[in-house]
Design brief:
The complex is a heterodimer of chains A (about 120) and B (about 110). With about 120 residues, chain A is mainly beta. Chain A contains no helices and eleven strands. In chain A, a hairpin with a 5-residue loop joins strand 4 and strand 5. Chain B is mainly beta. The chains are: A mainly beta (about 120), B mainly beta (about 110).
Chain lengths: ~120, ~110
């Protein structure tokens, strides 16, 4: 079955960096669109970044553009999110999610990894 | 594109039928998806393209609408339906936008 397992979250000071990873299994990862989506404490869902399958088209939310970098390693069935210049408002649970049938409907999500930006 | 859900929260009894509305700030045809986020778990896809159920979703969930107004209806409400429900548009991406969520409780 489809499994997505995030890792790499933790406590970081403002201005610091973190790299999140998402290990995928149970489906053709290299054929799939993927996204990172976050949920700040007590808030709703916010899309962060998107990467397509083979061509690797990439998009970012305005709130993270220039600070975050999404990437993938299809040989390792892994998705990444490099987060630099972190701010307090980046504090959230970060989920990786798979696009169903290469669409912007994200049918399967990982369990999430918590990123806390605080001094 | 902005999405506005109503109500923000609701409470209903087991066996009831509930409806959640999602309004888009412009015409999104039928590019509207729904997600379920149960407490203590991760979100999951529920309905895509307005009315198509994701594999494994019980048929008591249904979606309808087009243009700017959409609804998610849950019939015969069950305790496991306690969750926050989000709509999301995939008509104009990026950015992908979500509604603010509707929290559903059981009376």
């Amino acid at each position: 079955q489809v499994q997505l397992v995030e890792s790499g979250g933790g406590l970081v000071k403002p201005g610091g960096s973190l790299r999140l990873s998402c290990a995928a299994s149970g489906f053709a990862f290299s054929d799939s669109y993927m996204s990172w989506i976050r949920q700040a404490p007590g808030k709703g869902l916010e899309w962060v970044a998107f990467i397509s399958n083979i061509v690797g088209t990439i998009y970012y939310a305005d709130s993270v553009k220039g600070r975050f970098t999404i990437s993938r390693d299809n040989a390792k069935n892994s998705l990444y999110l490099q987060m630099d210049s972190l701010r307090a408002e980046d504090t959230a649970v970060y989920y990786c999610a798979r696009g169903n049938l290469n669409s912007w409907f994200f049918d399967h999500w990982g369990q999430g990894t918590l990123v806390t930006v605080s001094s | 594109i902005q999405l506005t859900q109503s109500p923000s929260s609701l409470s209903a009894a087991v066996g009831d039928s509930v409806t959640i509305t999602c309004r888009a700030s412009q015409n999104i045809m039928t590019y509207l998806n729904w997600y379920q986020h149960r407490p203590g778990t991760s979100p999951t896809g529920l309905i895509y393209a307005t009315s198509r159920l994701q594999d494994g979703v019980p048929p008591r969930f249904s979606g309808s609408g087009s243009g700017t107004e959409f609804t998610l209806t849950i019939s015969n409400l069950q305790p496991e339906d306690v969750a926050t429900y989000y709509c999301q548009q995939s008509f104009s991406t990026p950015p992908m936008t979500f509604g603010q969520g509707t929290k559903l409780d059981i009376k």
